[in-house]
Every structure is written in structure tokens, then in C-alpha cells.
Automatic annotation (TrEMBL):
This is Bifunctional uridylyltransferase/uridylyl-removing enzyme. Its EC number is 2.7.7.59, 3.1.4.-. Keywords: Hydrolase, Magnesium, Multifunctional enzyme, Nucleotidyltransferase, Repeat, Transferase. Residues 1-380 are annotated as: Uridylyltransferase. Residues 497-619 form the HD domain.
Amino acid sequence: MPDAAEDNLNLQQIVDPAKLRKALNAIAAKHGGATQEARMAVLAEVKRVNAEGRDVARKMLFDDGGGTACAMRISYLQDEITSALYDYASVHVYRVENPSKSERMTVTAVGGYGRGTLAPGSDIDLLFVLPYKNTPWTEQVVEWILYILWDMGLKVGHATRNVDECIRLSRSDMTIRTAILEARFLCGEKELFRDLGARFENEVVENTGPEFIAAKLAERDERHRKAGDTRYLVEPNVKEGKGGLRDLNTLFWIAKYFYHIRDTRELVGLGVLSKREFNLFVKAEDFLWAVRCHMHFLTGKSEERLSFDIQRDIASGLGYQDHPGLSAVERFMKHYFLVAKDVGDLTRIFCAGLEDQQAKQAPGLTGVISRFASRPRKIPGTLDFIEDKGRINLADADTFKRDPVNIIRLFHLADIRGLEFHPDALKRVTRSLRLINAELRENEEANRLFLSILTSRRQPAIMLRRMNEAGVLGRFIPEFGKIVAMMQFNMYHHYTVDEHLIRTVGVLSDIDKGDGEREHPLASKLMPGIEEREVLYVALFLHDIAKGRPEDHSVAGARVARKLCPRLGLSAHQTELVAWLIAEHLTMSMVAQTRDLNDRKTISDFAEKVRTLERLKMLVILSVCDIRAVGPGVWNGWKGQLLRTLYYETELMLSGGFSEVSRKERAAHAREELGEALSDWSQKDRKAYLKLHYEPYLLAVPLEEQVRHANFVREADTANKPLATMVRTHAFHAITEITLLSPDHPRLLSIVTGACAAAGANIADAQVFTTSDGRALDTILINRELPDDEDELRRGASVGRMIEEVLAGRAYIPEVIARKTRGKSKKRPFIIKPQVTISNTLSNKFTVIEVECLDRTGLLSEIASVLSDLSLDIASAHITTFGEKVVDTFYVRDLVGQKITNENRQTNIVARLKAVLAKEEDEVRDKMPPGMIAPQGSTRRSKSSASQG
């Protein structure tokens, strides 16, 4: 066991070793040591002891909250069980009266078990060490122990080697070397264990420090890369993720290898860690072990990812409570990320210091440490800093104390000179944070330097992240400190709030440098013309700074900006512009994704809010950066297209070019262009086809698409097919397009969206147009899933066939969806109160119904079906998904084309929709008739456009 005070662990409550051995000896006496009856009795006894011991450990974890103590208790339990099994096997099953030198072994714990800590679901890593080669006796004893452990349901990793093999393999295999470094004696021949330790120290460890350190640092970097290379993922891996337990293990491995220590506390005496830093290490380790043990106990397995499904329960188990602005689970996760940050600080500074020390001892080494071989030299223009082996360092120990502005200047110089940070410099920054006080925050030079870092044309996001990890950002800007490590309990945001803000600056920097032209063509086009680029950088850096407060974070954030911007040196005009951008930072993306962009009222309302082209340009760039920095897969080309459409329509209105007359003229011109493009058609066919389309279609659909649709309709008519589909992919937009020709039907939107849900397709947009002869020409856009075009085309064709099957009455949506969702987990960790709002002010022609609730398969179809039940004609629908939450907006009229103004009817609509959203009805009735092909002359629908965020 580690050197922790065992009397505080109450180990006798976990297992009584003497009592366990007495019970096993009694079994041997009763049944005979080697009989099958004895084996079954032994197995039953150790299973009982293990279950009872773990149950006690779980209860003690809830009582005292000690994570490390829990891990040590479970390790102690396993120690005593393994030792008792070894004794039983060697005495009662395979007893040797006069053992030879080869009939000896030592059983050692390695890996995490070797450190004397085990989580409830951890693997049991054992190394059976032999003096020479395997003998029948050693093979039998090892096999007997392992089979008992496996039959107990434990996951056991094991190896059987003699001492020579251990030494030889550890020289060539870094994993085996690390395992033996952590080896801990359990039972057997102790002299053999001492021999292994002495030879390992003399023949493997001696003079190989640089090799081991470089390997462990490279291993750490690769592990971080696989885990997402950030410690701020909202579903972190507690064991392998950045800032997790494995990072602490790495610190211990390197310290033990280099300093030849057995316990981390020895680093204080060696001057490697201060007492405060050691205490931080202990607290971080204890917290992470507590979280990990709770996770394993809760799930009943070796679960290492702190997923949304279990975060609430873990928070409850650890005793967190709701506070205004932050729920209990959000407070727990903020604590988790603060601990992960502490772990990152400790391991980064510690490992970098060792790396640097090893480089001094072996300057000829290549790879990780060879780049630090040059001598320190002065940095031009400053006497306070030097360049040491490619890193910036302090000229003397009093650099920060002499002038606290140097704390900010350190990062500024590193930015403009492209330098890494010397570990000593970062350590002194961490230990000098108290110097960042009110006086420094108001210092004009300090704020000028910070603004220069924030708006740098090099790598501002990297420098801001370094400042944040060192604790400088939260001290220099206290409002930022409040959102450091803050997570939002939802599936939409992938990172903590501070990491998201820094990433938005990074996206803006890429666009600013011209690196985002392919993915963000409009933003890249507008950025060079932005005169107030500092305003954009500051607005992005601050746009979510008021998260976690009871009030609207956009309003509160604008208030923070009005206070902070003058301190940073921005003018009154710039300050108000930043405040406006923060107050409206969600407006453009929400309008683009939840409103009908072909409704003039949408554009006029948005233009009234924006008012100037300068604001419009900045807002579209800010919106792009904000969405892009939410997390992987959130941004796609379709969202970019929606923002571009809203931008160009608003730009036209702000410049005085938008009017009803121009709209009619543009529609007439579009009809003429389509006629010219169909010049290879006969005049009769061309004239008949041009009469099919209404104004919304001609204005919304590009000419190229209109021609493609014309040929599609012509082919379907020639083949006499009442139902037809065609598919194509859009790689840039990450969208697959399914075009449907069908007789119109009042429930068509419900039917089509239900068919897509049944086929497993996630709708990103649906353009629905009605022709003058009573048919629907619908374009359904679904999110792309497969990277290869041919595979995606086959998938799209499958979705198209499902739509045709449902419309033809050959498939029944509820049955297909039920089959699709059968057997899937019903547990839903998120709680979203269903909301329904009705407005008659958002459109001149339509009533707008907006619903907000927890997303689920087939939801859009259910809502559309209810609206049809209520005799509402859906003219336009917009489906916006934010992780687990969906916001659906419907533009509707009654069947005579009027808005819904009657209050009683509005109340009924709200009640019916809320019942569906909350699943308050016993079941959602699906009233679609078996045959879905409607007769000519059915209810005509106007354009429907659905966009998913």
C-alpha cells in the first residue's frame, strides 16, 4: 500500500485477512484442498468477501468522500484476496514439501494496481515473477489463481516471466518498463522481488532518464491527441483525457524514474514541488479518484467517460447543489474542469522542467529535447527577459515583482517573437498571480499589451490559451475568471465557456489571415473591409462572458463590455459597437435558422434591428465564428448558406433595393430566363410548364435547379409516374438532396418528414412548392452521413424509396419508427420544459408558431400531423436542432388563408402541441389514411423551408 496513513482508511472494515484465511483453511479441512468441491467453496467465499468489501468501500465513499482512500481500500481488498488465494494454492492444492530453487515465485501488482489504487471496475494487473524458467508447479499455481479471479468476474491482465525476461523486455518495451517501475510486492518470495528491483535499477534505469522522459512525453501527447487534445471537452475521459488521472500518473512515473522516489511527497523535500503544489496534486488526485469510483459504482463497469447520462447522478453523489445561474451538475463539472486545469499546470510545468534538465545533461539528444540546445541570449528591446533554448524566460527572479506589467509583457513578447515558454517562467507566473491586482488591471500599458495579444495577426488563440492555463486571464479580467472551466449541461456545446471563447478568436484569426476562404467565403470576403477589426476580436472574446448568471447572458454581457472596453482603450463608439454585437450575437443565426427568409417581414424586422451595413458585416462574421467554435460537426456549409442568404437579402434592403415591385419584376424575369433555358422543348410544352410555378418558386430556386426540376417532372410525366424521386449530394454543404414529385396533400409535410425519420435521415432543410396543377415539388435536404459519394447516393436513394413507400401506403410510419427505436436506451439525462409560442407580428401573412422541446425520432412528423388535425395550412417550417433541444418554427394559416387571431383557438393550439411535446397523451394519434396519394385539387401549399442548426 502507499505511504498514506492506513489507520485512517479503516481497512479492517473492508476485509479481515485473518478471518479470510481461516475460512479458506476450514474449506480445505472439510473438502480436501484440491477437490472440485473445495474449489467451488473457495470461489463462493472470495466472491462473498469481494462483494461485501466493495459494498463497504462504496458506502465509505459516500460517507467521507475520499476518492484516493476508496481506491486504496479496493486495492487492499484485492491484495488480501490475491494473497489468500496464493497461500491456498501453494499450501492446499499444489503443496511442495521441499521446493527447489525453481519452484519459487513472487506475485507482484503492476500498473495502477502497483500504485496501490484500484477503481471498482479497474483491471487487476499481475506479474508472476520466476527465478528461472517455468516449471509445472509455477504454471499450475498461476493457472489456479487466475481462473479463480476470472470466475469472480474480475478483469485480470497478467504476465509470467523470469527476472532475466523482465529485464530484457523492459529495455525494449516502454510499457513493460513502466509496469516494472510500478511493481509492488504482494506475496511469495520476497527476495526474488528485491532481486528484480535491484537489477531493474542498475541495468535498465541507470543513465536512461532522457530516453524514458522523452517516451513518456510523446506517449502523453499522443494520448491527448486521441482524446481531443483539450481538457475542456464537456464529456471528458477521467482516466485518459487531458487533465485526467493518467497525466498525474505520468508525473509520478517520471519523478520516480528520475529522482528514484517511492512517494510523490518526496518531491517537496527535493525542491521540485512547493508544498502548495504538492497539496494541489493531492487534492486533484483525490477528486479525480472520487469521480472515477462513483462512475464505476454507478454504471457497474469500467466507465471512464464522464458522459451526460451520468453527470447528474455523479453530481448528486458528490453533494453538489443548484445555485442561481448554475445547476448542480454544472457546478460539479466546473469543479472538474478547474481540477483538470490544475493537473495540466502541474504536469506541464513539472515535465517541462525535467525535460529541460535532461537536455542540459545530454545536449546531443534528438527529438523532443534536442531543440533546446542553444545558450540563453538577450531579447532586443528589453532587459527583463531572455531567450533560452527557443523559449522566453525571466532575466532574474524579481522581474514580475519589479514591474507587474511584465506578467502581461511576457506573453506579448512570446507572441511577437514566436517563442515557447520556459518552464521556470510559467512557474513564476503561477506563483506571482497575486501581483495581478486592481492597479495592474487599470494600467494603461498592461491593457494596451493585452489588446495587442488579443488582436494579434499571428496566433492569438494559442497565446490566450497559455494565459488562461497559467491563471492570468481570469485574474486580469475577473469577469472572464467567472466563466473559466464553466460547462453548459447540453449536447450542443462541446467545450467549456472559456475554451469556446478562445476558439472563436482562433476562428476569426484564421479568417483574418485568409485561411478560411473555402469554408467561409462571405466572411473571408468581408473581413478585409472591416475597419474596426479590434471591435470584432473584443466582441468575440467577450460574447459569452456573462454565462452562468440568472439573467440573459447577452444583455449582461453587453453591460460587462461597456465597463471593460474603455479599460482596454476602446473609444466610446467602439465600446457601444462591441456592446451591441454581444447583445445581438445570437440574433442572426437564430433568424437564419428559424425564420422564413423568403418572408419580407423577416428581412425588414432584421434590417430594422441591424440598421447599418457595418453592423451587418460584423454580425455575420461573428455568427460564423461563434457557430464554428461550438464543436466538431456543428458547423456545416448549409448553415453558411442560410447566413449568406440572410446577409444578401438584408444588404439589399439596407441599401434601398428591396421592394414589392422589384420582387414582382424579378419573378417575371426569372420566368423568362427559365423559358429561354428550355429552348430545346417544344413551344407548347414550354408554355405549359412555365404556368406550373408560382412566384415563391421562381424567386427562391436558382435557374440551374429549375432546369433540373423541369427535366425531372417531364421524365416522370412521360413515364406516367405519380410518385418520383431523384437524389444528389452536396459535399461542400455536407448535405444530400432528395427531390420528390407527388400529388399534393394537406398532410404531406407530416408524411414526408415521418418517412425520413423512419429511414434514419436527419432533415436539414425542406423546400416545398406547390404547382398550379395540384402537385408538390419538394426538395428534402438531409444531413450527410457517409464520406464516399457513391455510398451516400445509395443511402439517399434508400431514403427516397422509404418516402415513396409511405406515400403509396405500403409502409406505416409508426411501425417503422417503433422497429427502429426498439431496444435503444430510454434514459434521457436532459430536461427541457416544452414551450409553445404564437405570434402574429413576425409575418404580414402568416401566424408563426414556435415550439421548443427535447428532440426525439419522428417529432417533426408528430407536430405537423397535429397542426393538420387543427385545420392549419403549413406554409413554411424551420427545424433547428441545438444538441438535444429542438426549436421548430411553423408559418401557418387557416384553411381560408387567414391568420389565427381567435384567442380560444390559439389556446387550443398551444394545449394540443404541448401535449405532444411532453408526451402527455397516451399516444400520438396518426390519422394518415392507408393510401397517401391525394386527388387533384387538394389543399394548395405555399413554399416550405426547413433549416436545421
